[in-house]
Design a protein that fits this description.
Elements lengths: L5 H9 L8 H9 L2 E5 L4 E3 L7 E7 L2 E6 L5 E7 L4 E2 L14 E4 L5 E7 L1 H5 L13
């Protein structure tokens, strides 16, 4: 699955975060985005890591998890196709991921990984829809 796959592109275009983007804005975003495939149990990012990307689940499931002091996994949320996560963190000062994210399904957790808004829209952290066409 790639960013040129019509199903992937249709899913991304339909997502509420990207629905208001003009074609040049979407192309700019897609130019620095990627699709990642993960095996079940594979960590996408760990709690406390610098938040460099936000994600949209294209296929499969992703669990957002916290770990207790004893190492026990606590699932905070289960996300499926069309759901996004970590986007709100992009607008925080000194953003770090507040939870860990782990692929929940075998070879089916395809995630669209978009760059942080500072990389898409310049140094000011502004919503993706505020990106200029230039």
């Amino acid at each position: 699955m790639t960013l040129t796959d019509t199903t992937t592109l249709a899913g991304i275009r339909a997502h509420h975060l990207f629905a208001g983007l003009s074609p040049p804005q979407l192309q700019r975003l897609l130019g620095s985005a990627s699709v990642e495939e993960a095996d079940a149990g594979q960590l996408l990012f760990d709690r406390g890591q610098p938040a460099m990307h936000f994600y949209v689940v294209v296929e499969g499931q992703v669990n957002l998890v916290l770990y207790s002091k004893t190492g026990e996994e606590k699932i905070v949320d289960i996300l499926g196709p069309g759901q996004s996560f970590a986007e709100a963190v992009m607008f925080m000062a000194g953003p770090v991921y507040p939870v860990s994210a782990m692929a929940a399904t075998q070879r089916a957790s395809h995630g669209f990984r978009a760059p942080s808004t500072s990389r898409c829209c310049g140094k000011a952290r502004k919503p993706v829809s505020a990106c200029s066409d230039t």
